[in-house]
Write a structure and sequence with these properties.
The protein is an alpha/beta fold and 308 residues long. The protein is built from ten helices and nine strands.
Length: 308
């Protein structure tokens, strides 16, 4: 499993984040689904292909929406993450959803009547499957948004081919009003991408980060910037009031420290090179003789020789 997949799953697996994503994208921010009504679902499903071999396919994150007693399943909700446009996304989603419906059928029970010895099938209530695709790419996702966008269908056949639309959220293209519909740590991530898309700049808000470790690691993957992962190892995750203002302050301070260290290293390197040039000119030595004379390790000969 790739680092991207692991970090996204860790962050979105929190019930408050997952419910916030669903409520913010599907229900206009209304708290239809409460965190306590979510139960983890197995993200993997199995199917038998034409080669008669059992294969697995895996969602990013999946949870059951249940009743208040967490007894009756009301729906299976899945979240998929995309950093790039996938022309086969509708095919992938219909595969995930179809596999989940197949699992519902496979969960029916076979019981034996003790009096007659006959088998009876108990059919469990069916529930809907909903998949949300979160897209974080720089290029707007215009298509594909449905099965019709993927398939080449003749006019004669089209009336008999069912379309299948996906619930895609183009995060960087959300409006400020839509971002405010979210209330969890996901709001900070959405706001970051929206601001960069609109002005190529980011001004952090003083919203407290609840799940700091998973949040920063995910930001590192989504932005392809290691500074967030590095900061995650430096901060106290229990610190109250930790927000993106502090994250960027630490990043700036860390950047200055790294820059100063690099500057000193470059200065020392240039100074050593000048000393080597003087020794070579004064003694008519080879580069190797001069480097050996001042004690440079042989493993670094090539680095200094390239500068002489």
């Amino acid at each position: 499993m790739g680092q991207k997949d692991i970090t996204q799953k860790n962050f979105e697996a929190y019930n408050d984040v997952f419910s916030d994503i669903v409520n913010g994208t599907l229900f206009d921010g209304k708290e239809v689904i409460k965190p306590e009504a979510l139960v983890d679902a197995v993200a993997k499903s199995q199917y038998k292909a034409d080669d008669n071999v059992i294969h697995e396919q895996e969602r990013d994150v999946a949870k059951y929406w249940t009743d208040k007693n967490c007894y009756i399943r009301l729906a299976l909700l899945g979240v998929e993450n995309q950093l790039a446009i996938d022309m086969d996304m509708p095919l992938r989603v219909i595969g995930y959803d179809g596999s989940s419906y197949r699992d519902e059928m496979n969960n029916d029970e076979i019981v034996i009547d003790e009096a007659t010895g006959k088998k009876h099938k108990i059919r469990h209530e069916r529930y809907p499957v909903v998949t949300i695709v979160l897209y974080f790419g720089k290029t707007p996702w215009k298509k594909p948004l449905s099965l019709y966008d993927v398939l080449k269908i003749s006019d004669e056949l089209k009336p008999f081919v069912n379309d299948y639309k996906i619930n895609l959220i183009d995060v960087p293209r959300l409006t400020g009003e839509q971002v405010e519909k979210f209330t969890s740590d996901f709001q900070i991530i959405a706001d970051y991408f929206v601001q960069l898309n609109e002005s190529n700049d980011y001004v952090p808000k003083e919203k407290t980060i609840k799940h700091a470790d998973s949040f920063l690691k995910l930001m590192s993957v989504l932005t392809q910037d290691d500074k967030y992962a590095e900061i995650s190892r430096e901060i106290s995750h229990d610190e109250e009031g930790f927000n993106m203002c502090e994250v960027l302050d630490k990043a700036e301070a860390r950047g200055k420290a790294i820059g100063e260290a690099r500057g000193k290293a470059i200065g020392a390197l240039n100074n050593t090179v000048e000393i080597l040039r003087v020794i070579i000119a004064k003694n008519s030595w080879s580069k190797e003789q001069a480097m050996e004379f001042i004690g440079i390790p042989k493993s670094e000969f090539a680095k200094y020789a390239a500068l002489l």
